[in-house]
Amino acid sequence: MLDLKFVVWVAVVYSLPLHCTGRCLFGNSDYCFFKCHCDQSGQCNDEEVTCPGGCASDILGYKWMGPACQIGNLAFKKTAKHYGNSQDILRDDPNNAVDGLLEPSCTDISTFKDTLAQWGVDLGYQCRVLNITIHFPKVPKGGGIEKYRNHFLIRVSNTDPASDPGVVCIKANSDSIPPPTYTISCPDNTIGRYVYFSRLSEGYEPHRATLCEVIVIGYKKIGMNIE
Ligand SMILES: *[C@@H]1O[C@H](CO)[C@@H](O)[C@H](O)[C@H]1NC(C)=O
To answer: Same domain for 105 and 37?
Structure first.
């Protein structure tokens, strides 16, 4: 379903004298505020904001959405990082969690025992984040310890590393263990450039976790003073 706020926003944008700005709002170029993700045959029409041929498929079966297919997985192939001291050689490429591949392309985000396991991705610009899906490994490293995926925190922040608390999308501080693929919705108007996953101190071995893929659904926040 389309985000109602987004529909309202598009209506507002299109009541403005766009051509006076001299900037591309919707289009195929990376410089447009919203890069369209039309399917191969479809043209993105900057004036009509349409993808007549429909939207392109994203990785893992996700489809781009929105009037010009500009709502989708913002984390795909962006730059990810580990935080805290690495524990050992188990810790692998943080970008494995944004490469569009599930197992075995995962990243172990473990740290030394004195810090919480934390991972983050830089979306590259300010984004409005709608929801986040985490793919944990079905069989976690370290002998199938499912407890590595409870007691966690997911935040959207404007700083790297997260020096502000940011917007908390979920604080899962219970013992119950979520399914290996888990989606959470962020609060309305969640805006930020960085998305962080971290374990909480109450959890089992809070310095450990493994992420296979982190899908961040949202769209680029535009810069003009029209929001
Ligand atoms: C995430 O948000 C998008 C856009 O609003 C929506 O289409 C999609 O169904 C949501 N995903 C889940 C799993 O809730």
So the answer is: no
Q: Token pair for residue 109? A: 């985000």
CA 140/CA 209 separation, integer angstroms: 8
Take atom 10 of ligand 1 and give the residue whose Cα is closest. Answer: 131
Are 62 and 90 part of one and the same domain? no
Q: In angstroms, what is the span from residue 6 Cα to ligand 1's centroid? A: 13
3-state secondary structure of 141: helix
pLDDT digits (tens, 9 = 90+) for 114-125: 889 999 999 998
Mean pLDDT of 4-8: 57
Domain housing 52: 1-72
Do residue 38 and residue 143 come from a single domain?
Answer: no
Residue 225 within any structural domain of the chain:
no
Q: What is the pTM of this model?
A: 0.83
Largest CA-CA distance found in the chain, in angstroms, rounded:
61
